[in-house]
Amino acid sequence: MGKNMHRSTKIGWYFLLAVAVYLAMGYIMPLLPFDTGSANFGYIFGQLSIFIPVLVYVICTKGQAIRDIHFKKIKIENVLIVVIFSWLCMPVAGFLNVISMFFAENHVAATVGSLTDNPFIVNVLMIAVVPAILEEIAYRGITFYGLRKYGVVAAAVVSGVLFGLNHMNINQFLYAALLGIALALMDEASDSILASMIMHFVFNINTVLLIQMYKILPYLEKVTGQEIKGLEEQTTDTVTSLSDYPLKTKLILLAVYGVLAIVAVIINYNIYKWYAKRNGRLDHIKESFKNAMSGFRKTDDGRIISIPMLLGIFVCISLMLIELL
Fold first, then answer.
1. What residue segments make up the domains of the chain, in order of their start?
2. What's 139-197 look like in SS3?
3. How much is the pTM?
4. What are phi and psi of 139, to 5 degrees?
5. Which residue among 11, 58, 183, 223 is buried most deeply as judged by most CB within 10 Å?
């Protein structure tokens, strides 16, 4: 890429490429001479659509994109704090997930049933390990660290939104965007991308554990002598959508998740401050938030949001709206 090109423009072209590759994969998959309709291929092609833009961008920047990423070691006790912080993000993600399920399908739940035949280690690698590494390099490594020069908070917000949009559906966008911001801020408090990789792994391992839980249903049926409603029926009837639920049930579910989310946010706010202080970065974080809006203003290196980035955002939003029709 040209040396005179603004940093945000480079990231914008990278994001637009990621969107284009994702769409191209959707056309290529049906043309392949084998069955690509399974959830396994969906995960594989999804990660491939992230890997290709990352590879292209790293080559175009002659490796500078990777050198800009902070890969500092994290102490064991800090790893435990990151895991606790990650778990406490779950109620917030659950709350946003419930909101989206009022009008959109839960895409993760819709694919869980078709992954129960996989060995446990395969699901761990495919769902938790690979995405935790690859997606973090793509969106915290390249995008967040690439935009960090404009301002930490602005870079966290923009990279989080782009991360959410790249999921290409309303359901995942809502919680993925917010979690993306949290992932970037945890990186900043740790001064290492390893923090967000750990967080991402913790988020995704829950899906693996859910799959394992459904695997034991047949054994529970034998032990109890009672029929337990199966996974396929659950994901069809209740897990993927709330559109057919009575309004009272929806509001109760929303209220329960809302209370849990508020409590979790309060606890995590204090954990984050303590964690940043432990790492000697609390003053830096506070200063970053004081100057949060300045990151969206025009600088000598242009604005943090570029034309190619806006084009990619427009395509993603259009596809998500079409899905709702």
1. 7-324
2. HHHHHHHHHHHHCHHHHHHHHHHHHHHCCCCHHHHHHHHHHHHHHHHHHHHHCCCHHHH
3. 0.90
4. -110, -30
5. 183
